[in-house]
User: Fold these one by one.
Assistant:
Number 1:
Amino acid sequence: MNDRIRVAVLGRNGRMGSEAVRAVEDAPDLELVAALGRGDDLQDVVDAGAQVVVDLTVPSATRENVRFAVAHGLHAVVGTTGWHDDALAQLRDQLAEAPGTGVLIAPNFAVGAVLAMKFSELAAAFFDSVEIVELHHPRKLDAPSGTASRTAELVGRSRERAGRGASPDATESDPLGARGADVAGVHVHSVRLQGLVAHQETLLGNTGEQLTLRHDSFDRVSFMTGVLLGVRSVAEHPGLTVGLDGYMDLGL
Amino acid sequence: MNDRIRVAVLGRNGRMGSEAVRAVEDAPDLELVAALGRGDDLQDVVDAGAQVVVDLTVPSATRENVRFAVAHGLHAVVGTTGWHDDALAQLRDQLAEAPGTGVLIAPNFAVGAVLAMKFSELAAAFFDSVEIVELHHPRKLDAPSGTASRTAELVGRSRERAGRGASPDATESDPLGARGADVAGVHVHSVRLQGLVAHQETLLGNTGEQLTLRHDSFDRVSFMTGVLLGVRSVAEHPGLTVGLDGYMDLGL
Amino acid sequence: MNDRIRVAVLGRNGRMGSEAVRAVEDAPDLELVAALGRGDDLQDVVDAGAQVVVDLTVPSATRENVRFAVAHGLHAVVGTTGWHDDALAQLRDQLAEAPGTGVLIAPNFAVGAVLAMKFSELAAAFFDSVEIVELHHPRKLDAPSGTASRTAELVGRSRERAGRGASPDATESDPLGARGADVAGVHVHSVRLQGLVAHQETLLGNTGEQLTLRHDSFDRVSFMTGVLLGVRSVAEHPGLTVGLDGYMDLGL
Amino acid sequence: MNDRIRVAVLGRNGRMGSEAVRAVEDAPDLELVAALGRGDDLQDVVDAGAQVVVDLTVPSATRENVRFAVAHGLHAVVGTTGWHDDALAQLRDQLAEAPGTGVLIAPNFAVGAVLAMKFSELAAAFFDSVEIVELHHPRKLDAPSGTASRTAELVGRSRERAGRGASPDATESDPLGARGADVAGVHVHSVRLQGLVAHQETLLGNTGEQLTLRHDSFDRVSFMTGVLLGVRSVAEHPGLTVGLDGYMDLGL
């Protein structure tokens, strides 16, 4: 088929990269034209005729990879972390000179996690109370999770914009810290349980009603739905997009 | 306070109406200027200087109530059922002649239920599978619930727009009907359990991940959050709005 | 009907007592023969021919009420708090002299809460990880709830008996206390949310599986199921029983 | 270490068998002395000095395997299906002649699933309403699941013993079958969702309260907890035991 999108995967030996190689190969509308590991020559991507580069490498490599792609007119879908404000600003400058080229940088490619976060932010303005419970496997080193902290910050900002104060809370005695962490005015609770992977609930309450938004990530392979969505949509979104929700037509 | 919104409640003796009377009285930014029951004279509402009329009466009365309100330049917030297409068309015509006046007709005033339905519709486009479980007290006469059917229809339409077919399902043997109802291509399951009030879950699944949107309605008083939101916002929304989500600033 | 159980309720004006009056009246196999408030004469209970006394009074009155009942050969079902070890020991002594008489003292009459606690204790011996999440209305003054603390203690003791150590937990960084309280080696998390009443989850995890035991208390009336179970069963359980689970035939 | 239990695994190439080989090798108190596949000689198990045989083969082989084991004084832990009443009766006869030997036949080795089923049975006697929701991946061929049907039967029998009738249900109109299957008088609902593995909820309701018992099986490896429990306990349970709960000290 001539009109399949030609895709190159960078970081083919990593956990995410190897899943991406498989996912692109399995997708009937995509064609894997190159898959590079550490030390391979980026020029191969151009020679193979790639249209979209998927970067799932490491923070020390991702900036140069994306710079190279944009310089050669290739779109990029990036799941690597390490893009701080300076790096984003430089990339925006470069893209201003390459008007048809699109780059998506997404900290999370699980469609459900992205929606849960977005819906939490939207709903938080309409409820008296909001709290977050995140649940992970017991090998996790930090609490709360990065996703829970980001969700709490989005929720906190949304409530501020809506002129809402803190959730009501009459607690006078909590000697052992059962009420958990306070992140941006939102209580966050971290459960660690054998058997779990990565799960999060946003609990919202008004008088007489509750809204619960829960995301379960059972397997890393869930990220691939979002990577493929990115690959298929990046050409229609010139310039820089941060966050997969920018590609999800929520009518927002 | 001079700038409180002056509110009249129609249907003050009904279950919803009596809650609304109490809620308006309790709200510091609202003033209850009239509360009418069956047989009372609508002119009282005008004489009392009401700005917003809340109609929580019965299908046989609501059309005339709203017609009267609009004819006198009063905004209306309507929770009564019975507004079929003809009635809505006539109301739209009347409102075209009353440019500053707003009417909100909402089948459901529970903010959480409205958001759960909206989020279900939005998310359905991004998942392989969607099913709905609704749970109610065992005195309910019909299954599935009206809310579940409406949600399934919105979900079904959303998936059609996104070019998604039916959820995958290899079931070959189901002699007892355990797979539940099919509404607009979406499986709907109805649980009836002592102790429950009204609850609904939309379950969405992709490879490796699940998104769950759950609404619990514990008490009819939950509707008041939405009624008050309507009263406070109706003046800023001239013309006819159907559905509380039209007043919820989701960035839509 | 001659063979209905004749019941007296003490504390008829309290929240629990008034519910109990109604529940006894509504039960076809029970007959309410007396309902006493503060200051009424206990002798009325005897004169009315009561067989079972339900004590839902206050800590300062309950001991004398039960002493009086046992002295007159009446069974007692007690929901009042304030029974410390000394009081229980004295009651046991008194019951040793009244061989046919039964007393049930139960801190919690919600059948589901009692079972959730019992099942948590039983299951805890078979799982690598156990944590508890309790969720209450935001007017609650203390965290964690008494029920959650008691459950954690039962769980902790059960794990000790089974030779199980602490749940695995690699957390190195938790600057804000997201991991919650440690009660008897079990993490307990307290959520406070508008709209909720009293809810609790015990989460248990092994490699590849999770068991969740959740109890929702939507309304105080849930206690009546247990009170009636107590009234109907107390005559078959001579002596002192502490905890409603002593009357629940779990085959345990 | 001399006092490790010496274990032989039959069916080493199957999905369950290969997991069992790994689990026995990883357990410090067990020693894998033999692992047989199709066509291997059972005598190897005896020659290797096995004390416990784990049978995870196929229905056509399991009876002869267990007969051989018992004839040689070896304990057996059996996860293979296909043990109908006749086969069990013959095995009981054989075991009557081999007084010290124990055999465990378990249809389900996931500790959490076994407990969820047992707790459902116990709790069902104390609630007005019980329903079951099972959720599986969409490649499953039959609905409801075997585990859900068995749970419903246990629940139904438990309610019968307690003199409880059907759960209350006023449903008059259910044209699409949303109320699901009726198994032994218990409503069972089957959800099929991409991303899921095997999950089940028993929902129990009384006036004002709900008890939810949920089991999530995320990975087949969850069965190994039960297999190892069986291997470690079989010597202490001479004769035939059907069901892992017979080895779980619930105080039953």
Number 2:
Amino acid sequence: MVHKRVHRKRDGRELLLYSWAPLEDPPLPEPEEAPAPSSHLRYHPLRRAWAVYTPHRQGRTFLPPEEHCPLCPSRPGGFPTEIPFPRFQVAVFQNRFPAFVETPPAPPSLPVPTAPAWGRCEVVVYTPRHTGSLATLSHEERLLLLWALRDRYQALYALEGVRFVMPFENRGEAIGVTLHHPHGQIYAYPFVPPLLEREAEAFREGPVLLELLPHLGPYAVDREGGFLAFVPPFAHFPYEVWVVPEAFHPGLWTLSEGEMEALARLLGRTVARLDALFGEPMPYVMLFHAAPKGEEAHFHFHVEFLPVLRDKGRRKYLAGTELGAGAFTVDVLPEEAARRLRETGLGPF
Amino acid sequence: MVHKRVHRKRDGRELLLYSWAPLEDPPLPEPEEAPAPSSHLRYHPLRRAWAVYTPHRQGRTFLPPEEHCPLCPSRPGGFPTEIPFPRFQVAVFQNRFPAFVETPPAPPSLPVPTAPAWGRCEVVVYTPRHTGSLATLSHEERLLLLWALRDRYQALYALEGVRFVMPFENRGEAIGVTLHHPHGQIYAYPFVPPLLEREAEAFREGPVLLELLPHLGPYAVDREGGFLAFVPPFAHFPYEVWVVPEAFHPGLWTLSEGEMEALARLLGRTVARLDALFGEPMPYVMLFHAAPKGEEAHFHFHVEFLPVLRDKGRRKYLAGTELGAGAFTVDVLPEEAARRLRETGLGPF
């Protein structure tokens, strides 16, 4: 059974500790209060999208030494971390340098539309251990992480102004990660972001993913208890992998206990495969795409891994055509990527 | 007067030499034929966008030593470059590793829609000198470059299947540039790419940029002969700069001779400013956004510089929220970026 302990940090931010057994340690001293967030939204009239302006984030913690890792457990008399407890399993807390906040300042008046950066940003610490990854967590740790995300989905979608909730993980310095401790993030957006608008439109027109699944033979990479891992034939990134339930689910919150177990195993094996490919941890962005609010009837839940290496030590750059036109060029054929990922020799294929 | 010499390379690719005085040197030996392009298009059913799959590009030339630079002039008895002439000013040739080609192979039949990668990709060599940038070219060189681009716009939009033509420059290893010689590229797309669809939609609803221009006081960076350089209040990249004509123009091809001169000067000064900011060449993507075919009545021509440094030696990464949701986070306020760029002390502001 998952236990959840709620702690209010001294600066008012919420810290949630998820564990398989109750944790009752008294809290240790906490770090200094965070700078006040100064975010607001601005509308790009040509890209037709909201962006969030966060000048206070320029000063965020950047690759601290291990002894000053803010995501490790605190020790009595030691460096005060974000988690003022000597033990935890999975910890979730409100980001110290958030893009979205529940009490945003009034936005400035500008020549383009602006809005308060209302919403919520959370950090999800996967494990008390400073090193590791989704691939090296134990099954119980990964499963607890998924239950924690499920709890956060429910809590954040219960907030009235939230339109879309996205757990994600940026992994590796090549993607700009500033803290090495295994962790992800959750953004609760006050708008449906552009790529999700597109996906929701597609799902309203038809069950795109469910119709595709039977035709993915050469693209399949791995399979487990009702989930398929595959390289999409339309991948935009080399070695991109999607993990998709084979029955309809709008989000993590509708999965059975057995499906939660299967997803935990398959996510772990997928990261292990990506790491085996070039014999080094693969830098990637991992995204949970669940239904935006109001799209639960059609939107098919999926997890996307977007790795940024196109070969060992050689990264894929987004440049002129991607950044300036939104048209991707892809050097690695998805069917070739799938074959190489299958051949890493983990799992049933 | 601009002179244009057309040379057909031995593998059939076209090479165009633009100069202020006729160039009549006989051609020198050429390099081996390029591998046959194997591109095709695939449709991403959830992002609702075409991408181009180019496995032959994995083997493209990667940071060759200067003596093997394919963009330098050839020397008799020397390394055969892409330009088999001892002298040139601006050279344009069909890319040896193109994404789009005029005779694409038939696309494979896949579980998602596919199409031939019809179109054209060109390389634009700014100068015969191996080092330099838009900032260090002479005014005459920059002006010749603009006239060459204007000629290419007209030639490429004259091709029936072309829907959008985009000259662009990827600059700096931080953006993945594989050749240092100052150069840009031109893509002639067989579809209107997603970001341009959005821009065209916006311009069909109203003259967004023309209405904005009078309100850009704190955002202005520089000005010259009917063009304004400014940091958009809705910039997605730190130190992003747009160069925009103050009267309506759908593309380079409608500018007066005086406006061509002004644009040449302002582009040069803009790059000089970006380079002065951190005292090192700024890595960026520069885009020419002219009207897609059929949008000439409303689409307002503009040049975008998207620099990827958010501070000296510290890059802006696109990660979870940008790549996975299309929602940008911006650390540097545009009005602060504009102030810093004005204070570099080049030009009238």
Number 3:
Amino acid sequence: MTPSEEQTGDRARTSGSAQPRRRPGGRTGRTRAQVLDAVRAELAEHGYDGLSLDGVAARAGVHRATVYRRWRDVGGLLADVLEATTSDDDWQPQDTGSLLGDLTVLNSENLAAMTARPSIAAALIAASFRSEEAARGLRRLWEDRYARCEVIVARAVRRGELPPATDARRLLVAATAPLYHHLVLLRTAPDPDLPAQAARAAALAAFAGAFGEGSPAGGASR
Amino acid sequence: MTPSEEQTGDRARTSGSAQPRRRPGGRTGRTRAQVLDAVRAELAEHGYDGLSLDGVAARAGVHRATVYRRWRDVGGLLADVLEATTSDDDWQPQDTGSLLGDLTVLNSENLAAMTARPSIAAALIAASFRSEEAARGLRRLWEDRYARCEVIVARAVRRGELPPATDARRLLVAATAPLYHHLVLLRTAPDPDLPAQAARAAALAAFAGAFGEGSPAGGASR
């Protein structure tokens, strides 16, 4: 759901994906790749507060004026990192053969991305509270990742694990939210069992019909 | 789970709680109350970026030197607002007579606190990404609120709704995390059905044994 180090780093640049590549080729494309790699490296090393256009230009070996003209400010750089992550990488959720397995692997990947040292994913989330451009970019990235994950629910429906009317997005949010709640909001030390536990709770809720479309909203006892 | 406007505002100051009051009385106590009210008002109106010791002193009608000496910086002010919220308010989760009802009301209160205009709760969460003191204070506040909510699970166990070995904290996080995930991280427009839906999903998972202590971590299909 969040970009892993690999996805935001080298893989996005070198991936041999057959999808159309939107990055312009030639010198402009190379400059962008150098600058975005420098942003990721600076962000990972110094966090949002240490990020500056001058520092990025120096690290990328690109002229300051070019960076200022094309990206304007730190928010512009972050937004472009997110855009590159979303459009260039070919991440798909793993197919383990079961809903529980798929959700557990997804949570494990998210935990690894968020607790890597340095974690670009965590730095981008923190930056989204500082820069409106970063916040917009991150919103698009979440949307893209949750959309890609809907196949997990579609596969479970095909296998007969879930009723066809299951609301994929609500199930995916239920499965993944506890991990982010701990790591980003509560800031509690990550429990290594959390990915599997949260996946299991969401799967059990789904099997019990919690995410059926048009299911009662649960107000009966209010 | 987060402080409501009422709890962080007038109620904390005027509450007739029978609990021992830790706030010192007399002029020092009045100064603190004036300053913390000013912090809440400035934060709500201008957000973290508009918060300054000078602005707080002016609004509170307290001498600048007093504010600088006692609270030092913006982080110190925020930490004290959180401390006052935690120690002075007598918030308890409502007892509706059912697990589903209790969790739904809890989520509804959290949604109201987070979407109030202005929302002090949302401002404090945003500030926690900027100030280490605010982050520490918020961590204590979350811990306090989740601890107070454990009675929801204890009541459900007493009623026979849940097995005695249910892990209260995991259940409470599962019930409340989706709301914060939408509001704080995904930043999607809040769905009015979300409090009830998330409560229902967590309750169904709990009834199915998802939060039983020592329950398998769900790795069976990996």
Number 4:
Amino acid sequence: MRELEERIKNDGQVLGEDVLKVDNFLNHQVDPQLMYHMGEEFHRLFQDKKITKILTVESSGIAPAVMAGLIFQVPVVFARKHKSLTLKNDLYTAKVYSFTKKVSNEISISKKFLSSDDHVLIIDDFLANGQAVQGLMEIIDAADATLEGVGIVIEKTFQKGRQLLDENGVEVQSLARIKAFENGQVVFVDEDQD
Amino acid sequence: MRELEERIKNDGQVLGEDVLKVDNFLNHQVDPQLMYHMGEEFHRLFQDKKITKILTVESSGIAPAVMAGLIFQVPVVFARKHKSLTLKNDLYTAKVYSFTKKVSNEISISKKFLSSDDHVLIIDDFLANGQAVQGLMEIIDAADATLEGVGIVIEKTFQKGRQLLDENGVEVQSLARIKAFENGQVVFVDEDQD
């Protein structure tokens, strides 16, 4: 998605080997117009699927997910992050390990918001090692719901998340695909073709 | 706002003396269409103000805030919640006490996303004791920005938040104003006039 790639080039900040900071339009400050255009793009990419619900994880997934939900006209459920829970009877939970922060968190979704009738589109801000998406997939399995696809804002193709999802036969569509950071600059997958 | 009041009547759940659970359309599962209509209503209520930025707090404030931002065509910044931070140089921070959870959290906003040129609209999901809004107001003060008003989805008029903001001369507009819970039912401020 050209608008997003340009925004990443202009406003993204490469930190070290593999971190891209996009807190000025996605992770802390949010550009609602860009989020809306991303929602339209997710709809274009998954319009042949019968989506009944969008799942994401708080907090950075919420803005792109609700814009997609607006266009798909379906409810959005955001999984909550916890250190770990004692009361779990009414919840689907999954463990999510963060390689960046080196901590394990639990994510949870109330059982009443996901059923076996649901056809789910997962939306998330980043795909790196795929841990968050995998946690949501465990929850979808536990609810006996159907995963229709995964929509990612920014994918880092050099980390193992994509491969993991491909191996599970999951359709993944990413709005921006980064293949490398070179000299502090972002290189997109399709950039050679320009 | 009639659509919101009806949704609260139909889907809200009164717990104990003073808690309203709206996790099926606002706090966990989100209805994007309703969020969009709320964004339109916030725009109608504050259209005479020159708003340059919308501020909210993660996570439940994000959905209504980004929809308002879409219609105002301004960036949205969501304050992050932490237990407490060591590195604070680049951040505005404020303490927020939660009466429900009986814990104190810190909220923070990167200094680069709020300046003295900004005219800010605060959007939040609930106004009860006003602690979150007060924290955001401290941050706006620290940045020497201008607070133009506060837009609330659900206000509980019987708690002290509204009075606190009135005393500070802040314009507050709430889309639903609850004056009491009676026998497990919600009673709105304007209900006698129906």
